[in-house]
Amino acid sequence: MTLRTRRLAGEAGFSLTEMLISTAIMLVVTGTIFSLMNPAEGNAQAQPEIADIQQRMRVGTDVLFKELIIAGAGPYQGPVTGALVGFFAPILPRRVGNASADPTTGAGSFHTDRITLTYIPNSYSQTTISQAMPPQSSELKVTPQPNCPASEALCGFKEGMDVLIFDTAGHWDTFTITQVQDSAAHLQHRGDDLNYAYDAGASVTQVVTNTYFLNRATRQLMKYNGHDPEVPLVDNVVDLQFQYFGDPNSPRLPKPPLGIANCLYDAAGNHLVQPTLPAADGSLAELTAAVLTDGPYCGAGNSLFDVDLLRVRKVKGTIRMQAASRSLRG
Fold this sequence. Notes:
It is a single chain. The chain is of the alpha+beta class and 330 residues long. 19% of the residues lie in helices and 25% in strands. The strands form four sheets. Strands 3-8-5-6-7-4 form a six-stranded antiparallel sheet, with no helix packed on it. The chain has a five-stranded antiparallel sheet with strand order 1-2-9-10-11, with helices on one face. Strands 13-12-16 form a three-stranded antiparallel sheet.
C-alpha cells in the first residue's frame, strides 16, 4: 500500500453505527436541557401571578382592617359624645341601604360574607336638632354650631353629605343632605321616612356607613355606601368570612330617659339583663348567628338590630384569593 492510499483510508467518515450512536447522545442531551428549562419557564409565569395575588390580598386586607379599626367611632363634640356602641350597633352582619338591604330580624339578618360598618369621621359637622322631628319630615331644624363664621351657622354641613341622627334610646337613621339653610339652621334631606319620631336634643352628625361583601357571581370584594352604585375593590376573591366576639356580660347602654323603654330597660329604668355568654376567645364570647338573631331587638323599623350586637368588641375577617390565570389554579 502506498503512502497516499494509507492517508485516504485514515480520512474516511463516520460509519452508520457511529452516526446513530452520536444522534442518540445528542437527543438525550437536548432533552435534558429542555427538561431543565421547563421549570424555569413555569416559574417565570408563576412569579408575576404570585405578586399579583399578594397585591390584591394587601389591598383587600388593608381596606377591611382600616374600616374595622375605626368602626364605632362616635361624636367628640357637643352634648353627646362617645363611641357609637353606647347608642346603637355600629357593626352589623348584613347589608344596609336603599338597594337590596337584608332583613333586620331573623336568620336573614346574619351573613358571614358581608358586614356594615358605621363611624363618625373627623368632622366639625356635629350638633343636635332643636325641634322635634316627625318621621315624614323632609327637613330638620338644628342647633347652630359654636365657633362658626358669622354667615355659616351650620359650618361643615354641605349638600350631598351623609348624615346620621340618633338618640340615647337606641334609635338611629341616616340620610343625605340636599340643601343647607344657614340663616334658618335648616337641613333638607332625601331618603325614606325616618324610623322614629326624634325629640329635640337628638344628635345629628356627619357619618360614614359602608357595607363590604363578596359578590360570589363575579368573585369580587365589593363596597356599598347605602345609596351610590356598588364599587368593586378586589378581583378573584373566592371566599370572605367574618366572625364576631364580644363582652360575655349583658350590655348596659343605651339607657333611655325615665319613662321610655327600649331593649335593655323598662320605662321605670330597670335593667333587662341579658344572659351571660361563655368566654371562648380569651375574655370574649363568640357571638354566633343564633346569638345575633334571637332578639330582643333595639331601634325601630329598618334600623332594628339584635341587642347582642351591642356586645361586639372584636371581628375576625378571613379573605381568600385565587390566581387570575386558570392554568395556575390548583
